[in-house]
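Researcher: Quick test of sequence recovery. Tokens follow.
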């Protein structure tokens, strides 16, 4: 084993790297120049600019598919705004609701940012909110709260009511909780990949949010080419990435998705594969191999992050090679739950989970007409069954099931 590692490390240490600055290709990197988003930058800047004078800006919602620059632009504007803020009580907080995972975790992260220690567990959500709001009032904090993937708080039917309650409380903070005449306020900047996000919100929340909405359209192939050229200049040594490779990556990422993040990620992985093989430039075979790796990792990450019952549902679907109706999938799901020692959810809830898996692109569930037997959904995997099984084999709970089989 040591010899293998020596070979790998010697190859890297003795060879010349094709990278000049890898950081430029990281997902969190914010370039000095953002292409093709001038209108969105201007609108966000105009909306948030009152905070420079200590006034409360309007709430904002940024919509668009993954990889259209929403997060990058929001953070870019906030970084610029910080240069003009002299009031130490003005705080910008950025959170990704999906990464934090639960409402409790989201609230405790907010508490940390504003200098309030929240216990890891043990408090009700209402108590955590109360402590946050009291702290904001006491300290006179002006809070701009950027909630990336805000739809994650309300798109789960089982948690939608709680998510709506929390959002409502935050949007009504100024008029209900801040009655002491403090200069404190909360402005929410929501970022969502789901164009139907507002449909998940109750009427009272929609009304109190009263946000300005900014749409981020998908990038065209030509726009992605220009974005990649900018990144190549900063990230790679000269002549290591030619125009043909840029065009190929842009075609993969632009024609189907308009996803610049995917394009930059594909460029990075292609470069890493080329460097690993000791080549001084990226070739087409590196891009093809990188594409396979990214697709595989994306599916595994999606499955690994699912709650246990959703894992049980997708495993149940995987047992039917040619797809099956929701009724038969539910029977298999009940069987899996019994083997895992889980209390099965209702069939209605499983139907909702199947819809969520459909939205994630892991399954397809078209409605089929069964004649006199009525209509039903036929559920089928859209990814390789082996990827489902391979990922679940590493799950601590599902290990018991595979061992018993």
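Model:
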């Amino acid at each position: 084993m040591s010899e293998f590692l020596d070979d790998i490390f010697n190859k890297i240490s003795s060879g010349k790297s094709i990278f000049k600055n890898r950081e430029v290709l990281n997902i969190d990197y914010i370039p000095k120049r953002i292409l093709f988003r001038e209108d969105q930058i201007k609108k966000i800047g105009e909306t948030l600019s009152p905070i420079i004078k200590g006034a409360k800006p309007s709430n904002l919602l940024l919509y668009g598919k993954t990889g259209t620059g929403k997060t990058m632009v929001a953070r870019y504007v906030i970084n610029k705004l910080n240069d003009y803020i002299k009031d130490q009580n003005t705080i910008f907080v950025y959170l990704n609701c999906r990464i934090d995972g639960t409402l409790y975790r989201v609230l405790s992260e907010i508490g940390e940012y504003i200098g309030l220690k929240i216990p890891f567990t043990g408090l009700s959500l209402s108590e955590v909110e109360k402590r946050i709001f009291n702290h904001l009032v006491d300290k006179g904090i002006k809070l701009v709260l950027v909630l990336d993937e805000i739809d994650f708080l309300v798109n789960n039917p089982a948690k939608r009511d709680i998510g709506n309650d929390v959002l409502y409380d935050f949007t009504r903070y100024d008029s209900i909780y801040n009655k002491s005449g403090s200069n404190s306020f909360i402005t929410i900047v929501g970022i969502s990949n789901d164009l139907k996000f507002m449909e998940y919100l109750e009427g009272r929340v929609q009304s109190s949010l009263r946000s300005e909405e900014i749409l981020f359209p998908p990038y065209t192939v030509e726009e992605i080419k220009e974005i990649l050229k900018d990144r190549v200049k900063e990230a790679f040594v000269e002549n290591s990435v030619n125009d043909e490779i840029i065009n190929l990556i842009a075609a993969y990422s632009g024609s189907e998705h308009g996803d610049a993040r995917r394009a930059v990620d594909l460029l990075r992985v292609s470069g890493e594969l080329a460097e690993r093989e000791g080549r001084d430039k990226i070739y087409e075979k590196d891009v093809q191999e990188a594409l396979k790796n990214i697709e595989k990792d994306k599916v595994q990450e999606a499955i690994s992050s699912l709650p246990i019952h959703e894992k049980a549902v997708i495993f149940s679907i995987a047992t039917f090679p040619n797809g099956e109706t929701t009724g038969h999938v539910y029977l298999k799901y009940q069987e899996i739950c019994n083997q895992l020692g889980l209390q099965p959810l209702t069939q209605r809830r499983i139907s909702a989970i199947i819809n969520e898996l459909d939205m994630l692109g892991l399954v397809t569930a078209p409605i089929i007409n069964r004649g006199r037997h009525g209509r039903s959904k036929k559920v089928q995997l859209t990814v390789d069954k082996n990827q489902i099984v391979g990922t679940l084999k590493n799950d601590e709970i599902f290990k018991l099931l595979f061992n018993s089989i």
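The mean pLDDT is 89.
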